[in-house]
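Slack export, channel: ligand-projects

TW: morning all. Re-posting the request from yesterday since it got buried. We need the structure predicted with the small molecule present, not the apo form. The ligand is flavin mononucleotide; the SMILES is in the block with the sequence. No rush, but it would help planning for next week.
GE: picking it up
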Amino acid sequence: MVQPKTAETIFPVHEFIKQRWSPRSFSNEEIGAETLKTLFEAMSWAASARNEQPWRLIVGVKDKGVAYNKIFSCLDPWNQKWATAPVLAIIVAKKQIEGKQNPSYAYDCGAAMATLCLQAISQQIYVHQMGGIDTKKVLTSFQITESEYEVMAGVAIGKVGKVEDLDVYYQEMERATRKRKNLEEFVFGDNWGNPSSDIF
Ligand SMILES: Cc1cc2nc3c(=O)[nH]c(=O)nc-3n(C[C@H](O)[C@H](O)[C@H](O)COP(=O)(O)O)c2cc1C
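GE: finished. pasting the full token output, ligand included:
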């Protein structure tokens, strides 16, 4: 069974935001190069400090070149157990602008990946980001200069597969209810740590 995990929101939000979630079960359905280009195009239109666009993406398509297997070998074993999506990627950040540290590189990379995720869901494609990767191995495998770049996350991309195809342990996680903080826990006013009295 394919698992729909549409968010149950308190306030109305866009359908794509509700539909986006991070599956571990991916189907074998191929994601073509043209489709992938639309996701990367969307990513390129994210806002970034000084329009620096510090994100770089290593992409591997299953059963194509060698990139896929190289990326897969950099995932933590825990992620390798499920991350068999048709496309794997690694987002890498350029840390400097004109030889000086860019304070916004991580923030900007997150915005770019969020933009990619929303474009993807608009095409019924799902994205699962992974902090659980061997960043040192990524640097050496792809000959990336550590002083200039930081490995941010791994990314699995594809159509949702059947929950039953996952190991039982992951099936439970896949079926778990999605939860979020209440808005009062992160929307503050003049009293830090307390809900904004202008809003609530
Ligand atoms: C930066 C980042 C790192 C993550 N690392 C992992 C990971 O290593 N393994 C994993 O299974 N999920 C990972 N996730 C997925 C989160 O657990 C998931 O996004 C979160 O539980 C919220 O669920 P949702 O995306 O389905 O709404 C990561 C997500 C992000 C954004």
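GE: first-pass observations. The radius of gyration is 18 Å. The chain has one domain: 15-162.
TW: perfect, thank you
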